[in-house]
Each structure stands twice: as structure tokens, then as C-alpha cells.
Amino acid sequence: MALVPVNFEYWTGLRQPFLVNARLTGSWDAQGRRSDQWAEAPMTAFTAEDGCPAFRATIRLDDSQIGQGFRWGVSIDTLQSPDVWGIPTEVNDTASVERYRTFVFQQAGQTERYYLTLCRRLGADKLFVNRRRTPAIRFAVWAPNARNVELVRGETAGGYIYNDERGVTASIPMQHGEDGIWSTSLADARELARFAPFDHTPYMFRITKDDGSVAYRTDLYSRCQIGSGGVNPEVDSSWSGRRQDLDGSKSCSVVVDPEQVTALFNEGVWPETQWLSEAEFWQDEFDPNRPVPTRFEDLVIYELHVDGLGLDRGAADGTLEDAMRLLDYLVDLGVNAIGLMPMSEFQDWTGWGYSTSHYMAVEYSGGGRDQFKHFVRQCHRRGIAVILDVVYNHYTFDSERAEWAYDSNTPENNIYYWYEGRGSDYPHPDGGYIDNGSSGWAPRFWEEKVRKMFTSSAAALVSEFHFDGFRVDLTTALHRDAVVHADGRPANNACIFGQKFLREWTRTLRLLKPNVFLIAEDHSGWAAVTQPPDQGGLGFDATWFADFYHHLIGDAQNDPSRARLLKMAGYGDNRPLSMARFAGALAQSDHSKVIYHESHDEAGNSHYEEGGQQVYSARTIMVAINDAPLVGDNRRYAEARVHFSAGMTLLGPGTPMFFMGEEVGASRPYRYADFINARENYHALRQGAGANLFRFYQDLIRLRLTQPALRSTNIDIIYTHDANRMLAFRRWEGSTELLVVASLNNAAFSGGYSISNSRIVDGRWREIFSSDASIYGGSGLTNSGSIASAGGIFTVAVPANSVLVFQRQG
């Protein structure tokens, strides 16, 4: 019997030192034999060959244990929390949520390695070997079914490689290694010894699939896809030959140095010539006088679609340059968080971005990765957090050259797509794919490499782009809605692995940035979505609360169970409104909810059938008057009802959000298919017809951010009256108490309206906000001086279609 060494390594794949003080633990005892009582050993920090922080340790196992299986893991300290389990990856077992790694003890000196992310294991990455100061380059790709893989290089001017090999300038062999990963070797190509000559050069992988067919595939870990247009030369022979016109989701991947950032936002040339190191670029990221919010309850989120900007300069579509120009406008408005619609590389810039092809690349049509970093830095300098939409429920609709049939044409071997059974089980080969309520087939979440692609891309966005948070699109598709395409039967395992993925994703991001904002677009009502993973939850901070929207606005569906307040008020008559029903939704928004009166989904893209006609949703100001012309008294009524709707969002207990343009009364329906024609000039509206509304939003946002009671989750509905269209609720924090009185009545209660509830304490109150103030275009009906409440009765003048806020004195 002898003790022999076994090596363990924990690679982060991220340049920032998020993690420290790692400790190895495993199912062996001090004598090196299997044990249910795990032993622990310190790990030594080192820089791995990918240039990133890593940790390693060597333990000695008894050679009598050769052939035995062991489990192991790593505990680490984050910059905020000590002693955190550093393995977010769950075992690939539907019946287990445990997180550990396994290995079979085979021989002395074997090395077991865990990759927290694959950011620098797959793709085109720097390689530091033989103590050289200048890095080499390594290309690596996951293609477990491939017979052979080669790296092929393209020419910079065109940036496209045809399926018949036109555009290939050179090829380099790749070697098949562990876990189905193919990588280049310095021994096979001397030119790989230097990273620099490869910088900003196009490449693809030439893959010989398992059936012998050959396909050209992009690098799904690329940080840049060449092209900012929509042309696919394979089907469009009229291509100009210019890289700018290419659809980036199908063009060549491009080598970029993630440790360099362009010195200028737009140098006007590509590749750029003026660069800064990461440290230089980010050194003045924050202004201490304008801190970026770190608590979820402090956020006021402005949902922004970059491509929907640009009208103020007459551009064909919006870019990050337009978003940069909007920042001072947003500072004046007072929001402190931007919720960006997707910006990762996606098919066709004229869409909304929910068809992602490359999760680590930034869509070049909007400006590309370096401009994105400039944008985030400018947001942070202004105290604005940046939250990005990400899409994991399906891939791009046309994913040839991306995820589709990457290394095999056999459906069950389609490595990025979930497939039940074998192709021969179904009359049609697509029968085994999984539908999940989204617009594409479901990802193959049982593959750890697929889950890691998504978690790694988000980790890179936190590390390299300094994002503050993410909103995950349609999480219900991942954890609840999977069915087999052929017959609609439940695909329960797909749901279980979707849940595994979401837990791994949230855990990974919490390791790197414990206060990262994580939002789920989830309509399941499942409480576990916002519970910590260690308590059986998925780990999100909050979900989008669509019920709040449907009760408050209600133009997106013809559902009689919804209050649909604004839709009903928009008819202009005096019918009773379901104020009590809405109040129930308002009260339910007090825990882990993002509430909104308009989002991109509802700003014109939803519809229902009524009387044989398709009725489409609209912008809030148009719902408020049932799409009547926005002139004269119509506008006055519309803006007053908008005050009510925005007030419910910004004064409620949920985290408030609204879609861009709401603050100036944007009125054109913002539909997916033709949004480019619905763009509006927010700068001009602010100075013109939307000036009063902008001022209203400014003051209401300022009130929320300066009143802790409005940022608390405390709410008590004390009064509703459906016929009078009245609502009142309390908000408080500590010794501060506020009373919100809101009306959708078309006539003012100028002589006073009495609200009765035993929970209204005796005291004196002062009006601190009125949406009917003349500066907002209102009638100027206010409550001046000190107002007494006694015996649970509070009487005040209430303007038509208004929201008032009172603060208790003393």
C-alpha cells in the first residue's frame, strides 16, 4: 500500500478575482481512503494558462483505492461572503439537486479539474505557456459527434466563408480531447504561438459530421460576429461583398482581445487603432456623488429598446450612440436603472432581439461590444444601473451556422436541442423536439455544456461589461411548459433540467456579484421562482407581475376576470370600475415583483378578438381615451388617467418599471413587426406636447426615491369604491406614514370625499403631491394646510382622474 498524488484544480475562466481562499473537500479520509466524512485541504491560488485566477491542491490517496469512485468540491470566499460552496453545477440526475464533482481514481498524478465558466476554455482565447509574457492563441469548440474539426480563417474585408469553401484563406487542424472538445495545438501550427496576429481576424470551424458531411460553423463562444446588416450570401447572390452588410449570426466569428477596450466610442475605422487596457478603461467608472443603486427595492427601471431610438437625428434605426445621447435625458427624468432589451448577437437587427444566436457577442448593428462597454460606463457615472434581457428558452429562428445540427444531422444528436427518444420513434423527424411556449425548439438542458454556455455568457457580461443585472425571458418555458412536439405530452425531464439550469445560473452569478439584480419574466405564480436555491427555489429577486398590468391597464386581453381599469375608463362614460379587484393585485405586488403600466410586450404587440375583429393593445395614453384623437379635452383626460396609471406603479410596493416614451406620452403602437415605423422623438416630445407629463414623471419618481415609505413593501388597502372609482392605501416605513388617494372618477369631489377605515390613525396630514397641480396641466385643485383625521375618517378634496399623496405629521 502506498499514498500517491492526485491533483485538483478549480478554474474560474474570468480575469476579475471574484473568488478567494479556496478549500478542497472530498470523500476521502486522512489515510487517503473513501469516506463518508469528507476531508478538507487548502488550495493555492495561481494564474492558469488562460490567464485567469485559479486554485489547485494535491492530496494523496491510498493506491488500494484505484478503481474507486470519489466525490469532491470546493469552498471559497467571495468578496462579500465567506465559506460559500463553489460548485454551482448540479449532478445530471433528475432525482438529485446535489452539487459535487465525481472521478474514478485511476493512477498517480491524475488531474481533476472544474471550470466555473467556459469563458476561456471554449472559443478563441489567449494561452499563456512556457512562462512566455506574450500570449499564444488557442481555438477550442465542443463537437462531440464530429469525425474531424479544422479551424479555417477568412479574409477581413468580406468576412464570409461559403459552404463551397470560397473565402477560406487558411486552415489549421484541431485535436479531439476530453469531453468532446476539439482544440488547436501549438505543435500543429507555429503561427498559433502569437495571439496578436490573429486579433480581429475572421474564422470558422469546418466540421466533418458523424455522417461524413461537412459544414461550416461559427464559434458559439465568439465575442464578435462580423457584420451589421441582414444579408446571408448563401441565399442572396446580390451581396455587395462588404462585411458591414452581413447578418452577423451567419458570418464569420472574429478574434478579439477581451482585455482591451477602444479608447474612443467611435473611432470610425475597423479594426480600431486606439486601445485602453481594462484597468485604464474602468478606473473612473463611478462618481461617488451619484452612486449606482445596489438594493432591488431602490430601483426605478426604464425599459429601453436601443433600435427604437434615433428618430431625433433622422437615422434609419437606433444604435448605442443614440442610447448614449439619451442618458442625460434619463438623469433629468430621475430613473436609476435601464432595462435593456436583448443586445447579444441575434438574427436581423430590425427585430426586438429575442432570437439570440451568439450569447457572448454583442450585436454589431447596435454598435458592438466596445461601444456597449462605453455605454455601461457612462450609465454608471450617472448613477444608473444596467439590466440586460437575456433569452435562454430558444435560439435564433434561423440557426444554421449557429446551434442547429452543429456536428450531426441525426435529431437525437443535435447537441444544442432537447430531443426525446430517437428520430425513428416519430412519423416526422421533428417530432421529438420540445415545444415550450416560446418561438423555437427548447435547448438541450441535460447537457452540462449547454447549461454552461448560458451561465458562462452571463458571467462574462458581469466580468467584462460590468452589468448590474439581468432579466431572463419567459422562464416559465424553462421550468414548466415543455411538451413533446409530436403529441404535446409533458416533457417532465426537460422541465426538471430547466430548473437545474436556472439554479446553476443564479448561483453562478451570485458567486461573482452577490447583489446582482436577477429578474424572471415568469407568469407561473410559482413561489419557488423567487426563493433561494438552498430552500428549493430558483434564486431570482423578482418576477414580472403581469397580473398587475392586466388589472390596471387591461387592453392586452379580453378577460372579464381582470379589472382592466384604464381600458374601461377609456370609454369615457361613468360605469363602475373594479377598483377592489385591482387593489387585490396592488396588494399582491408587495413581495418580489416588478410592476409596470407598460412594457415592450404590451405597447402594441398583444391582441385579442372581439366581435370578429382583432383588437390590438396600445400605448397607455391611447388606451386612456380608447384611441380617440389626442387633441383638446381628449389629451387632458388622457394625461390625467395616465397620471393615475403611472401613480399606481410608482407609488406601489413593487419595483416600478415603464417602457420608454411613456414619460412624454408616446402614442404610436410599438409592435414587433413594424416598430421601426412607430419610433418617436422623445427629446422633441419633452419640449412640446409631452412637457407636462415629463414633469409629472420627474416629480413622482423623485418622491419615490426620497421617501423610504414608498420603497418599502408595506401596503395596506384601506378603501375602494367601484361606483365612485376610488382607491386609497397606506404606505409606511418606520415612523413615516403616507396615504395615497387615487381616483378614476371623471368629476372632481371638490367639496370633499370621506374615506373611512379604522386603520386610519387620528392625526394631521399634509398633501405632498397632487397630479392635478397646474404644472402638470391639471385644474389646480389641491388640499392646502393641515388636514385632520379622526375616528378613522379622512376627508379631502379629490380632483377628477388623479392621484394624491398625504404625509402624516408628527
List the SSEs and their pairings:
Elements: E1 3-11, E2 19-28, E3 34-42, E4 44-47, E5 53-62, E6 69-78, E7 84-85, E8 101-104, E9 111-115, E10 123-127, E11 136-142, E12 148-154, E13 168-173, E14 175-176, E15 181-183, E16 202-208, E17 214-217, E18 253-254, E19 260-262, E20 275-277, H1 278-282, E21 301-304, H2 320-333, E22 337-340, E23 344-346, E24 356-362, H3 368-381, E25 385-390, E26 434-435, H4 448-465, E27 469-472, H5 476-479, E28 483-484, H6 492-512, E29 517-520, E30 542-544, H7 546-552, H8 565-569, H9 579-588, E31 593-596, E32 607-610, E33 613-616, H10 620-623, H11 632-651, E34 655-659, H12 682-687, H13 691-706, H14 708-711, E35 716-721, E36 726-733, E37 736-743, E38 749-756, E39 763-770, E40 786-790, E41 793-798, E42 802-809
Parallel strand pairs: 1-9, 21-22, 21-34, 22-25, 25-27, 27-29, 29-30, 30-31, 31-34
Antiparallel strand pairs: 1-5, 2-3, 2-6, 4-5, 6-7, 6-8, 10-11, 11-15, 12-13, 12-16, 14-15, 16-17, 16-18, 19-20, 23-24, 26-28, 32-33, 35-36, 36-37, 37-42, 38-41, 39-40, 39-42, 40-41
Helix pairs in contact: 2-3, 4-6, 7-9, 11-13
